[in-house]
Amino acid sequence: MTSIDNDPLFTSLCNEKTLQSQKQGFFNEFYQSVAENFTGKSARWLQDVYQKVPSDKERLRLIYEDPVVAYEVQGTLEHVEPVFRGKDAKFSWQRREQALKLLSENKLQQALIIACQAVMRAPGQGVDRYIDKGLTLALALWTRAEVFIRQLDGKRALQDLQLAAKCGLPVKQNADYYARVAKCYALIGENGRAEVAAKLFHQLSGHNNYALGRLQEDLEDLRVLKQETPSVEVERSLPKLAGEGENGEILGASSKIKLAGSKEDPRGRYVVAAADLGPGEVILTEPAYAACLHAKYYGTHCSACFSRLIAPVACPDCCGVAFCSVACRDKACATYHRFECQYLDLMIGSGMSILCHVALRMVTQAGTPEKVLEEGKMLRDTFCAHTEHRDPEDHFKRTLMTAFLLRCLQKAEFFGRRTTEAPEPTEQELEVGAVLLSALQSLQFNAHEVYETRITGEHRFDTAKVQYIGVGIYRGASMFNHECYPGVTRTFLGTAMILHTSRPIPAGAVVPENYGPHFMRQPKAIRQRNLRSRYWFKCDCRACAEDWPQMDKLPAKPRLRCPTEGCGNALAYPSKPSQRNAKCSKCKQQINLDANVKMLEASDQLCTTGAEMMASQPLEDERVDEAIELMKKGIALFAQAAHPPHKPTLVAEESLRSCFADKGNANRY
To answer: What CDD domains does the entry give (predicted)?
Structure first.
């Protein structure tokens, strides 16, 4: 990778996209009102004053103190107030009644959707005693538990019943409660506990033998129905890393990779193979340092772990986000969400990008200003920001965004209870603001989009589509440099990133990632333009240097590899068998290419068979694993025989990604 060489207009558009929405939100109006002061005598204020301030902290201080902009900045920030959707007991009660009606009509999926709305909008115990005597949340959970029982989902029904009890539902003398608990245990196969709960029901119902008999019949019916209903849920876990032992340099990485280069190196620090790597090896399983869900998925995915919501658990105070479990909710509410809760809708309304939210999350999840400052040095050392190359107007916009986010933190009492309502920051607040501002710059180059695979039909692969659901920042993954022909494939499980090798990489060679522009999908000129303007470097990878054609224009046969050990020269594919005996122009040796041709034919057969296996029918997990092994062997054989690019091998590499993604965030819709 060489020095920055960008298209100023397109670069400006790319920078803008990483900061804010161009079509909506009040931040743009905020900026325009401040920028109006850069006219007349102050027309060169950005270049002559702002740009000459030496540090992010002092530039942030400047916008609060310099008379050219301070009045407009502070005047606007004074109006920052909480904006969020609160609870509504009446709405929850209405939804609960609708869910019960749908349940009586056996419309179970519709009943579940409405019951979930009742749970999300219900205030906590005792908040609104005029409706349900303050038990709206407990009764909403009670209703949803009945829906889950009818859907034969004993695990989630039991979780709702237990949560309802914690939210005030009377259970000590409640026979119906223990009847439902018994049904839950019967559904999850814990017959001993189901029997205990049935005995409690019997006692609390006044030893009503008839009622007990009916309950036992229900329990048996539920067991039979559960056995007849195949389970579609799959427990997923992170794969085991290749190699032995932990990597001491790269968080979450295999010992088979290592860091090379330095900050002074034009390529920076980057990852190379510490040992020979074959295709399909797991070289990274890294949890996100910070990750945020796209706002449009707040109602469908867990705000903490990004899993698909089935039985959402709400924040006690707002209805803006949902969690998949009490554990995720409690972790979020103990850290970042308690500061973001009442300002989330305001931030969305500002039009700020999701990268701005990730920058804020890097601060709020720390919990205290002291922890932010402690982490700040590590973040600056890890993630490049290219501050010295940034246009002064773009930097000023990011400073203004920092001021807005800092004001939200002030109002949310991240810094404790303040002695003044004025937005002007203290020294500690300025230091935290500088960490925020650095993150707003570095995330442009280091953030990764988190995706899930959406399966919309019967077939797992034919109907699978990638859907980006959030953005994360990863310390280890940020060390991988880009090439337009990557050596790894990126998948996710929750917010954790998983990197598998997609082709063989010899020890000492760079292990490249791909930042988006892939040679198969974009011509060189478009890739170069995108990389220069979005990531500020000119790519000089092999695909660019040799100007490889896109997928639909690839030649039928690849170039073969010289069989002489240590040579590796690329030779034209022989059109006739008689041309397989030749002299290599690099090593000057007489060579025979028969073995290469045979290996290539075997490689194509393996890759094609694996890809066809994926496309032929709905697959079981065992068949997916078989397809993976076939394609790994085919890709490895190709690397011995020939040079890329080659269509069957590229199809196999992409098919490998699909198989690995199927083992991560994959949901049926």
So the answer is: BRcat_RBR (cd20335), SET_SMYD4 (cd10536)
What one-letter code names the amino acid at 525?
Answer: A
Cα separation of 326 and 335, whole Å? 14
Q: How many CA atoms lie within 13 A of 637 on its CB side?
A: 22
Q: Report CA 263 to chain centroid distance, whole Å.
A: 27
Higher-confidence residue: 181 or 40? 181
In this prediction, residue 574 carries a pLDDT of 93
For the chain, percent of residues with pLDDT exceeding 90: 81
Q: How far apart are CA 211 and CA 225, in angstroms?
A: 21
Helix (H) or strand (E) segment spanning residue 269: strand 269-273
Cβ neighbors of 432 (< 8 A, separation 6 or more) are 363, 369, 372, 373, 406, 409, 415
Burial class of residue 269 in the structure, from the number of CB atoms within 10 Å of its CB (0-12 exposed, 13-18 middle, 19+ buried): middle
Instruction: Give 621-646 pLDDT, tens digit per residue.
Output: 668 889 999 999 999 999 999 999 99
**How many Cβ atoms from other residues are within 10 Å of residue 17's Cβ?**
14
- Type and span of the H or E element at 559: strand 559-561
Convert the pLDDT of each residue in 231-253 to its tens digit: 767 788 999 999 987 798 998 99
Within 335-368, residue ranges assigned H as helices are: 337-340, 344-350, 354-364
Cα→Cα distances 504→487, 495, 568, Å: 8, 27, 14
Cβ(10)–Cβ(533) under 8 Å?
yes
Q: What pairing do the DSSP bridges indicate for beta strands 447-455 and 666-668?
A: parallel
Helix, strand, or coil (residue 493)? strand
Domains of the chain: 1-79+289-473 (no CATH), 89-228 (1.25.40.10), 556-644 (no CATH)
Q: Which two tokens stand for residue 82?
A: 């909480």
Residue 515 pLDDT? 93
How far separated are the first and last CA of the chain, in Å rounded? 41
- Helix, strand or coil, per DSSP, at residue 587: coil
CA 131 to chain CA centroid, nearest Å: 39
Report which DSSP code applies to 553. G
Task: Compute the distance between CA of residue 526 and CA of residue 511 in angstroms, rounded to an integer.
Answer: 23
For 472-496, what is the mean pLDDT? 96
Residue closest to 49 by CA, chosen among 31, 62, 65, 39? 62
Interval 367-389 mean pLDDT: 91
In whole angstroms, give the CA distance from residue 513 to residue 477. Answer: 9
For residue 121, pLDDT beyond 80: yes
Is the pTM higher than 0.85? The answer reads yes
Cβ(163)–Cβ(125) under 8 Å? no
For residue 472, what is the enclosing H or E element? strand 464-473
- Residue-level pLDDT at 2: 39
> Average pLDDT for residues 176-189, to the nearest whole number?
97
**Distance (Å, whole) CA 56 – CA 434:** 6
d(C-alpha 160, C-alpha 266), whole Å: 56
Q: Is residue 616 predicted with pLDDT exceeding 80?
A: no
Residues 6+ apart with CB under 8 A from 392: 46, 47, 50, 51
Long-range contacts of 205-208 (CB under 8 A, 24+ apart): 205/175
Side chain identity at residue 595, one-letter code:
A
The Cβ of residue 266 has, within 10 Å, a number of other Cβ atoms equal to: 9
Q: Which two tokens stand for residue 149?
A: 């029982």
Confidence of residue 3 (pLDDT cuts 50, 70, 90): very low
Closest CA to 444 of 512, 359, 370: 359
Asked whether the bond before 555 is cis by omega within 30 degrees of 0, the reply is no
* Total length of the chain: 669
> Burial level of 72, CB count in 10 A (0-12/13-18/19+)?
middle
